[in-house]
Amino acid sequence: MRRMAFGAVRAICFDLDNTLWEIEPVLQRAEAILADWLRDRYPRIPERFPAAEMLAMRAALSRDEPHQAHDFTYLRRETLARAAAAAGYEPESCASIAHAAFDAWHAARNQVTPYAETLPALERLKARFRLATLSNGNADLARIGLAHHFEVSLNAGLLGCAKPDPRAYEAVAEALTLEPAEILFVGDEPHADVLGPRAAGMHTVWVNRRGSAWPDLLSAADASVVHIGELEALLAET
Ligand SMILES: [Mg+2]
């Protein structure tokens, strides 16, 4: 861990998935709920397109429409609409089937359980720092019940670009009306949450809950923590 002065930091911008809560079990459950929902209402869709096939269709759509690749909501809805049409449902009802199916999935996607450290850490940190979030995912912080902790919450769908695109971090700095050097970025993904924000001029802390090795060829974050409960002490040292 490289020592770093965090004295200039006035705001902390958090990644969401796997930084404030664990996402994999949530996504697994959401897929299962969507599968049940489709089987009950539009069974020809899962019969024709099992989950693995839907995933492949989304990946293909993302490749075919790179300008939309950052927008997971669009990719998921459009794939559902195309699957509904290909499965033989009325063309004029496919968009509404896709919207309703997406809503069933999205409700489950927002049923996250914050890590035990998350709420106490946010409560303490917001007394000293302005707080923000920047996610490539489509979590809804209002539905999750965490929106009130953050002054600024941005995501790839909203911005039209995804981390590590420099414009995503610039948008956070602009929304906070701070210089990048006054912002600490905190997250679990080396490229999206460390290299990207550092290239944009921000301080960085890598959240490494799983005890992973930092990728050899990449230069390390300013500091690393196991969970965000360690941030307060880290920032107090400077
Ligand atoms: Mg993450």
Concise overview:
With 238 residues, the chain is an alpha/beta fold.
Give the SSE layout.
Layout (H helix, E strand, L loop, with lengths): L10 E4 L9 H18 L2 H5 L2 H14 L7 H15 L7 H16 L8 H8 L4 E6 L5 H4 L7 E4 H4 L6 H11 L6 E5 L2 H10 L3 E5 L15 E3 L5 H6 L2
Parallel strand pairs: 1-2, 1-4, 2-3, 4-5, 5-6
Helix pairs in contact: 1-5, 3-4, 4-5
Magnesium ion binds next to loops.
Please give a structural write-up.
By secondary structure, the protein is of the alpha/beta class. It folds into two domains: 11-22 and 115-236, 3-Layer(aba) Sandwich (Rossmann fold); 25-109, Four Helix Bundle (Hemerythrin (Met), subunit A), CATH 1.20.120.1600. It has eleven helices and six strands. The protein has a six-stranded parallel β-sheet. Helix 7 links the parallel strand 2 (130-135) and strand 3. Helix 3 (51-64) packs across helix 4 and helix 4 packs across helix 5 (94-109). The longest helix is centred in the N-terminal third of the chain and has 18 residues, at 24-41. It is elongated and about 60 Å long. It starts with 10 loop residues before the first strand and ends with a helix. The mean pLDDT is 95. It binds magnesium ion. Magnesium ion is lined by residues 15, 17-19, 187-189. Magnesium ion binds next to loops.
Features:
238 residues; 2 domains; six-stranded parallel sheet; 11 helices; 47% helix; binds magnesium ion
- Any idea what the shape is? elongated
Got a strand count?
Answer: 6
Q: Let me know the average pLDDT.
A: 95
Strands ordered across the widest β-sheet: 3-2-1-4-5-6
CATH fold annotation of the largest domain? Rossmann fold
Number of domains: 2
CATH class group of the largest domain: Alpha Beta
Our Rg estimate from Cα atoms comes to 19 Å
Percent of residues in beta strands:
5-15%
Find the structural class using helix and strand composition: alpha/beta
